Batch of 4 targets.
Target 1
Amino acid sequence: MSFQSPWLLFTLVVLAAAIGLWLYAERRRARYAVRFTNMDVLASVVSGRSWPRLLPPVLFALALGVLLVGLARPQVERMVLKERATVILVIDTSRSMQAEDVEPSRLGAAQEAVRTFLDQAPDRLRVGLVVFAGETQVATPPTRDHELVRTAVDEIDTFLVFGGTAIGDALETAVDLGKRVTEAELSEEEEIALADLGARRSFAQATSCDEPGPVSILFLSDGAQTRGILQPLEGAALAREACFPVFTVALGTPNGTIPRGPFGGGGFNPGGSDSQRIPIPPDPETLRQIAEITDGEFSEARTADALENAYENLGSRLGREPGETEVTFLFVALAAGLLVAAGVLGVFVAPRLP
């Protein structure tokens, strides 16, 4: 814990001195004997000096101490939302995602995992969705309306994408989407003038990659590249250049298969025998390299639970950075509670003369 105004903590010394003076005055007063002719009055006063009588002043002093600590504006370290934080979700919707080696299917498990991610993500985090197979499509641009993203995830089968797996092109689309968002929100004050070039570059372009940028890409796929213009590592290089870390998740097991289609390719053929099925193992090595190049993280999920746990973990981390949050209100609330308790006890235990 740290304090924004630590010098105000010296007021605790003043409070301690005041308490010390009060105790000293109480001890001096106890030295003087007072003669009572009424023994009933004497018994009442003596009984009033029992320990319950001390509770109200003790609680009052404790409340003052807590309030003085609150005036110093205490802060705690926690993960806080980054400025302009954005997460681009990229989901593979190729035919191989219909495999049922992950229940209920790879695509169904991916949809549920994204819903878990949205549940964990901060409300102010902007989330975009890109779906891809042989081609890519932006399902939702980055938005703080998480319900809109959730609706797109529920209707992910309605997006028209051709067969194959274009990992490199999907990365390029996600990077371009992230660049458009960051550059659109930059004000003129945030632009950096480059006099020697006679031009101006945006903050996102001029920032080095010593620290992650405001955009993160969460990439889920289950197979190797089979289509597309860019190769996966070429797409990773674009993300690295933009300072966008890519968090990759390889979904599926080595035993995953899909039915062979009527023309030899993967397709829907529920009644097909084992000899009519195509093996579709995941390609974790490519996704691992993408994460390493972009300073992201790689995860491998062979079950729906493992995938959901990975997305839950990332949902609570992506778009956040270590920071300090002021908790003055907690100390004020605690001080108020102690003052109320002191007042209530004072009513019941204060000594009364008969």
Target 2
Amino acid sequence: MNFSIPQLNLLLENIYIQSLLTFIFFLFLATIIILFYKRYIKKIALKTKTKADDIILEKSEKPVFYILLLVGIKMAIKPLSITNPAVQSGFDTLVIIVIAYIISSFVNTVISLWGKKIADATKSTLDDEILPLFHSFSKVLIWAIALIIIFDTWGVEIGPLLASLGIAGIAIAFALQTSLGNLFGSVSLILDKTFKVGDVIQLESGEIGQIVGVGLRSTKLKTFDNELLIIPNGQLSNSKIKNLAKPNNILRIVLPIGVAYGSDIDKVKETLLNTLKNIDGTVHSNDEKFKPRVRFIKMNDFSLDFELRFYIEDYKERFDISDKILSKAYKELNKQKIDIPFPTRTVYLKKD
């Protein structure tokens, strides 16, 4: 069947033909974009080190196709002069829903990858407790914004609704003030990488123990007396913490040692330094920073006070190594005829 140019122009002026051609154009465009996705974009994403782009591309492939189809349908019905606003609003609503789905998938993918990385680094229960909360919060926020936009598309007055939600949010925040403080405290502890499970820390109040669990509300600390301390994360994040495992396992030990007045100071220093020889676990390095030292600190009431300062390779061995060195120091001092004093007091009686 042959068409002349006038007949073809007449055919193209038909609003239904225009609508059909517009829809076919957008369908063709959507198909081309998806093919471009699969053949080129996905191959580029596979070459990157991160998996985030792969997951996002996979989840957004179909939604992008449907968005273009919906836009095509909306453009296709324009020549039909459909004046019913409900039809236009309906199509806008579908487009908003698909876009919100894409954004939600993207945000949740980023949260999952980020959370898994942090959880692996801290060996905490972040992925089990905080991540689902972040997922839920992001979904509620994204879909709440989408719902507000949909209401606006349908001509619904959203001002009073936002005011009501604001008041409700303030009330909920006050009611959950303590719980939210602990929640944000746990997040700040994890983001700051303050500690991880297995680290030994010292609290501001003086307790020392090993981290055995980091939860959503609290952190569990096991002391060396086998006591379990449960500390709210809000309180912990606002206090001063000494982490013995940071920046590494090397720890400096300072042992105070007193000798009697009249002792040879140089001989005392030499004897104490010799006690560090052949002690496993101590740091033996030519680096000035890690060299052991003996400092003459004070002439006390009944003793000359020294400090033996040295580094050990693992802070967890500090008690055993300190015990070995103190025992050896006592023996060496006795061997060198260096007296170790004890508190004495001389009382003079005056006769009248």
Target 3
Amino acid sequence: MLVLVFSLVGCSVIQGLLADPTKQVAEAEALLKAGDLAGAAGVYEGALAKAPTNVDLVSGAAYVKLLQGNPAAADALLAGVEGASGTRLPEIKMRRALVAMKTGDLDTVKTHAAAAGTPEGKLLVAEVNLADGDRPAAKTDLEALQTEAGPVGDTAKAYLALINDKNGLIAGLSEIQALWALGQRPIAVRAVEDLAKAYASEHDDGPDQLLLWAGRAATVGEPAIATNLLDAIPVAPQGQVWRMQATRAMISCAEGDGASCLAGFERILTISPEDGYADARATAALLIADRDAETARKLLEGQKGDAAARAYASLGDMATAGTVAMDPVFKAQFAPGAGG
């Protein structure tokens, strides 16, 4: 979501300035797409010196600061342009909300999202209310959003289906899902087991939900919870045998058992979809990298993509991370001098 909202803005709204920064915006975008994060940062810095209140420049520069791991600087840039943003203030407020979400500051997320007043902002407010345990307030927000077209309306309906469930445990799953959506993932996983099992006992798609949360538990390093959720699945969902076994292999890596992890992936090589198999191996490598670098590298052999890049980065191998990353903007984060 962060990348979507911060995705590089076009140059159509750059008018009325003494120094038109259209060329610099295009140059910075091109550098980012080429993987030159430091170069893009430099272009934005120079352009902002001439047009410090241009919303497109500030949005692009703030996005670069996020990529450089500096959310405080990103927020400062966005805060500085609020007074000059005019009708684009909701965009700035949403960006500030998402920067706050990156840092885990849910109160600030709610403040900025409410000020944005957009459907997306109102959905964020509802999710924060759910995360805070204020289901009545969230329900009011979501009922107003369920008629929205697209993802906002669909998400509101999904939350309401949980909230309105007569089983209190299942209704509570709405709060856990909101925590996950807001980036509070370990907290969500540690609270989900009984709720997911309650859901599975009363809904046809229960095994799918158990498998979903088992995978999430494995990815945040909670192997016991992941195992308990998998063990509660009586029969693998249609076409998901490989995914169940891949999750068990990831659990082995999360437990530090490299041999079992590798063996688990070997067993499902011929029954797994190529992309899903590659992502699962890269995730497993990330889980075991800090304890067993040798196993992590074996899991990453021949792997490319952004998941593999994250795993290589966790091994301290930034050069290979930059080589295997596919998204050019993501690749730029591993380039020499990318931090800032």
Target 4
Amino acid sequence: MAASLPSLGNCKNLLSLSLAQNKLSGSIPPLVIGLSSLSDLYFSKNYLTGSLPLEVGLLKNLGYLNVSENKLSSEIPGTLGSCVRLETPRVEGNLFHGTIPTSLSSLSGLQILDLSRNSFSGRIPEFLEGFNFLQILNMSNNDFEGAVPTEGVFANASAVSVMGNSKLCGGVPELQLSLCKSKGSRNRRLSVTSKLVISLCGGFLGLSFLLCFLFICWYRKTENDHSSVSPTKSLFKVSYQTLLHATGEFSSENLIGVGGLGSVYKGIIQHDGTIVAIKVVNLQQCGASKSFIAECEAFRNIKHKNFVKVITACSTVNYQGNDFKALVYDFMVNGSLEGWLHLDEREDEVH
């Protein structure tokens, strides 16, 4: 018989349908494969194309399914797992591909399973080991990979055929497959790789810490050197406004001395009431700015009980926008050196 399959959707009580060894072509009509009354279905050795319809899952009473030696393609539908009474599914000699659906794990009553001469791939499902009634398993000439199980039907090499799957390994010795690469060897390689990565990371972190330490040392040395060159930068702790208020706007009443490079005022720092002597540098005088820097440097490096302590310094601009520099000393109530040296002369002038 050479034709396409007719629709048999009205044959509600059909139990067995055999159309094997004909020249039927085209796809399998869903209405044919969806007759829930069917227990045996033979479509082998025809020219059927397309996929196995999803409606195959409606065949709740199906025990024998043979669609071998056709040109069926696509993947095995997962709905086939609903045919829980299925004992013999034969799909060999087609163009099926993809992995074996995990839903077939419900077909625990399988006795014969022939998947040979297709293009199935992936690992052999381990659930097949638990099929206690499985007597013949043919998975030859596909593209399966990985380790072949060794329990259940796989323990009997005469009941299992896996030849023509170049990526398979392991199994019982009678199958004569190559040994699988052991997990221990992979773990050892992984361990060596991990150690190498950890060593490299540890070395990198150690080098990073060393570089950070050297940078900190260099930075501190640079800061110290910079402070030696410009000592005033570490002394700028009071503002012009603070000194202005402390001296009553540099009033003559607070003036306690005048020198070649500036004037000295008595002042009271408002926030803590400290009495200080404030030397305001006369920047109009030639060399006054350099003298200010030199004095800062000298008092920074020299400590002696007979020298007046420099509390801080101020280098900024005043309210008129002019440069302003001043040194702030501890206030000494015993007068100045000049006053003590010329004390007799002043007394004579008074008399």
